[in-house]
Amino acid sequence: MAKSVNKVILLGNVGKDPEIRSTPGGTIVASFGLATSDRFQDAQGNWQDRTEWHNLVAFKRTAEIVRDYVKKGAKLYIEGKLTTRSWDDKESGQKRYKTEIVVFDLSLLSGREEGSGSNSGGYSRAASSGSSAASFDQRPPAASGGQDEYAHSAEISDDDIPF
Asked: Is 147 in contact with 97 (CB distance < 8 Å)?
C-alpha cells in the first residue's frame, strides 16, 4: 500500500470557550472553533481579509489541557489530522456529515493580556495526546516598563550555548 499523509497545521484564534464533555466510558472530549485568516487582492486591487472557521476536537490529556488553559480569543498553534464523521439525523432521517480536525499537539501562544480571559499566565505550553509530557517557556512576562527591559537583562554569550 502506498504511503499517505493526513496532517493539518493551523495558527489561529479560538472563537469561543471550548465545550468540554465526557464519553460514557469517561474519556474527556473538548470541542472548539479556531479562526484563521488570509489576505488577498480582489479584482479592483483592494486588499480583503477572509476568515475560515475550523472545527477542532481533542481527546484525553490534550482535552484536559484545552479545558484548563484555552479560552475565547487565545492564539493557538495546532497540529492534527482531518476527519469526517457521519450520522443519521434523528428528526429528518437524512445522513449528516461533519469535518473536523483531531488535535494531536497544541501550543498556547497568547500572553496573559491577550485573549479574553486567557489564563496561560504568559507561558507557552505544548501538549501531545500520546504523552503527558509538557514543555514550558519559563521566561517571565514582560515587565510593565516595556519589553526592552527584559531583552537587555538577558544577554547571552557564545559560552552560554551548549553546542
From this structure: no
48-106 pLDDT per residue, tens: 999 999 999 999 999 999 999 999 999 999 999 999 988 888 888 899 999 999 999 99
In a domain, 30, yes or no: yes
Distance, in Å, from the CA atom of 163 to the CA atom of 160, rounded to the nearest integer, reads: 9
- Domain, as residue range, for 84: 8-36+50-155
Place of cell 429528518: 92
What pTM was estimated for this model as a whole? Answer: 0.63
CATH classification at residue 94: 2.40.50.140
pLDDT in tens, 124-146: 344 444 433 344 444 445 444 44
Count up the domains in the chain and report the number: 1
Cα–Cα separations (whole angstroms), residue 31 to 5, 24, 56: 23, 16, 6
The DSSP annotation for 126-154 comes to EEETTEEEEEE--PPPPPTT-HHHHHHH-
Cα separation of 77 and 73, whole Å? 13
